[in-house]
Design goal:
Structural class: mainly alpha
CATH architecture: Up-down Bundle
Shape: globular
Radius of gyration: 23 Å
Number of domains: 1
Number of strands: 5
Number of helices: 17
Largest sheet: 3 strands, antiparallel
Helix content: over 70%
Order of helices and strands: HHHHHHEEHEHHHHHHEHEHHH
CATH class: Mainly Alpha
Distance between the termini: 48 Å
Strand order of the largest sheet: 1-2-5
CATH superfamily: NCX, central ion-binding region
């Protein structure tokens, strides 16, 4: 285990080193030279990186840093209250996406009422909706298919073979019902977000408040996270306490600094690459940037699935979707207002309104699939095909490969209607299962509140 863990840590750190060298030579050393009062000139090779090279170097740094962050958070569960660890993990789960989104939300405030500010607001929404749709369209669907068709699936208790065409299913943990219901509530609210032509304080209060309620239920209900760690976290947790805590803080600090410094050149590089080949910048930010930031989480989930821990992997994906659909959206207006110097709505155009609606509709359909705590091959393929066909069709329209009788915005609305029709049909068909899910969740919340009250009384006594 030691050799594998050290190899994984070394690989993640190696991904970050090119950016460390570039950033150190072009930013840190000149700053230190200024303080020391000496003249410094960065090496010419480092100061003239092409746009593509910049994107690759910074993208790899964000990727490696995300792995280190995840390992640090899991390792920390041995030394902090488990409820606190859940909250930290929830924030870290959206950290790479939030870093890019926060950058554009900030720019939208700094350059408010200018063309650059308006474009930045649109890009913030594009990245947020892209990350959410990738998580379901590729994450949920792809992991379900991998779970069922990988070698050794027959020994996985989460895989259930059924007769019929593409009817095999992945059975999910019923404890995830709490997340499913909260995700449905956030999804229904998301349909309302574009009605005010932007993300405003009411969206922030509701979505962040909803997430806070979710955490409160987990804390008071003593919901235990999966503590059976493998790989790097398992290795680091065997360190002596002081060394373990120091390692966790070092990983947090190193990864946080890298993400903070690499995300701006990464995002701007993607924007310039898209413009250079005739692709709108929002398309690059919407799909390429989230793919890079989601990759560590998806790789970790695939690793868990391959170890016959499919339930833990799916729980992580569903929880991550809830985090992104609440914290990520709700806090953007805070960043925007801070940059603006006063409260202001993070505005976007009608195209981005359509992006939010299709993202909410996809989430609505995905929740309808989980009402019975299972997802079949047929349902996973439907999720995957709907997601890929929309993205590829829009790309083909942008590049004039195909001509359709609708605009790209109208195409989004068509897919929104498809998702809503399918989701509504499933909710109606599975209404009894949905009723049981709601009652179960209400019971979980009630038990959590009563336990919390009992603890208060015990403390008073």
């Amino acid at each position: 285990m030691r050799r594998r863990a050290l190899g994984a840590i070394s690989a993640a750190v190696a991904l970050t080193l090119p950016w460390v060298v570039v950033w150190g030579a072009t930013d840190i050393l000149p700053w230190l030279a200024t303080i020391a009062g000496v003249e410094y000139q960065a090496p010419a090779a480092l100061g003239t990186l092409s746009t593509l090279a910049t994107v690759i170097v910074t993208g790899l740094a964000v990727l490696g840093a995300a792995f280190l962050l995840a390992w640090a958070a899991e390792t920390a569960e041995k030394d902090v209250p488990q409820a606190f660890a859940i909250a930290v993990l929830a924030v870290l789960a959206v950290a790479p996406e939030y870093a890019v989104d926060a950058l554009y939300a900030w720019n939208a405030g700094v350059f408010a009422e200018t063309e650059r500010g308006i474009e930045a607001g649109n890009l913030a929404v594009a990245n947020m909706t892209g990350a959410n749709r990738i998580l379901i369209g590729i994450g949920w669907a792809g992991v379900a298919l991998f779970t069922i068709y990988r070698a050794g699936a027959s020994t996985d208790p989460a895989v259930e073979k059924r007769s019929g065409f593409l009817s095999d299913v992945v059975v999910l943990d019923r404890e995830i019902g709490l997340e499913v219901v909260f995700l449905l509530i956030a999804t229904l609210w998301a349909f309302l977000v574009p009605l005010n032509n932007g993300i405003d304080i009411y969206d922030m209060l509701f979505l962040v408040g909803l997430y806070a309620c979710y955490i409160a239920v987990i804390i008071r209900g003593d919901v235990e996270p999966d503590m059976d760690h493998v790989g790097v976290p398992a290795y680091l947790q065997h360190f002596p306490k002081r060394r373990r805590i120091a390692t966790v803080f070092a990983l947090f600090a190193y990864s946080g600094i890298l993400i903070f410094t690499a995300v701006e050149p990464f995002a701007h590089g993607l924007e310039h690459l898209g413009e250079s080949v005739g692709i709108p910048s929002f398309f690059m930010i919407q799909w390429v940037a989230p793919l890079a930031s989601e990759a560590p989480e998806l790789i970790v989930v695939v690793y868990l699935v391959n170890k016959a821990r499919s339930t833990a992997g799916f729980n992580a994906l569903i929880s991550s979707k809830l985090n992104q659909w609440t914290l990520l959206i709700g806090t953007l207006v805070v960043v925007h207002s801070l940059a603006l110097g006063r409260y202001g709505v993070l505005a976007f155009d009608f195209k981005q309104s359509a992006e939010i609606w299709i993202t909410a509709a996809q989430s609505f359909f995905a929740v309808s699939l989980l009402i019975r705590f299972e997802i079949s091959v047929r349902e996973a393929l439907t999720l995957l095909v709907l997601f890929l066909s929309q993205v590829l069709l829009e790309f083909a329209m942008i590049r004039d490969f195909v001509t359709l009788p609708v605009s790209s915005t109208e195409l989004l609305l068509v897919y929104t209607a498809v998702y809503l029709v399918l989701g509504t049909a499933l909710f109606v068909r599975r209404r009894r299962a949905f009723g049981r899910l709601v009652r179960r969740t209400a019971g979980t919340i009630g038990n959590a509140m009563s336990i919390g009250t009992d603890r208060t009384h015990s403390a008073d006594d």
